[in-house]
Amino acid sequence: MENSQVLFADLKAGRCSNEARNVRKGGELMSVDMLFVDENSTLTQGSVGANRQLRFKDRLCEGSLYTLTGFDVTRSNTNFRLSDAPFSIRFNEGTELEKIPASVRPIPTELFRFMPYSQILELANTGKQLPDIIGELNAIRSTITDCLPGAQRVMLTLRLESGENVCVSMFDSMALAFHAKLDSYGREPKVIIVTSVNPNIVGGRLFLNGTSGTHLYFDSETAAGKELFDTLPGHGADPGSSTSKVIHAQKIEPMTISKLNQFITTADS
Question: Which domains does the chain have, with CATH numbers?
Answer without folding.
Answer: 8-100 (2.40.50.140), 117-252 (2.40.50.140)
